[in-house]
Structures are given as C-alpha cells and as structure tokens.
Design a protein that fits this description.
single chain, mainly alpha, two-stranded parallel ribbon, 5 helices, globular
Length: 82
Amino acid sequence: MYCEKPLATNLADAAAMAQAVGRQHLWRPPAVLMRMMTGVVYDIITRSLRISNRRFKAVSKWNPSVPNARMGWSRLGEESKS
C-alpha cells in the first residue's frame, strides 16, 4: 500500500486496520513480549520514519495508488475478502 498522506498516529493506523478487517480493535502484544520475540529488529520495526516521497516522485513515474492510509487499509481488507 502506497499512500500520499499517512495517518496522524499509531492508534489511528491501528483503528483503520481493524476496521478494514471488520474488527473494533486489534490485539497488540505488549512491547516486552514483542522485544523478546523480535530482538534487535523491534527497534527497527517500531521506529517512526517521517519521510517525504517528493523526490522519488520527481525522478520516477510513481504516484501513490491511494490518497491516504485509511483508504489503503480499507482496500487491502476488501481484497483479502475476495
């Protein structure tokens, strides 16, 4: 899923993912458990990266397929049902 504007918070992102799969909430394992299961990768996968796609779009023909993350998660949820 590639989108132009990410959701504002991790909670908003989790809510959009839950809605996409027809749930009110998603279960998130505690950080301690995730750190035990993933080791040093935990820091990499939980890091917030606020980066712009402006330069990539300028040098390629790429454009986001959806305008925002909520619509992207919704599309993925619909595709997984079919």
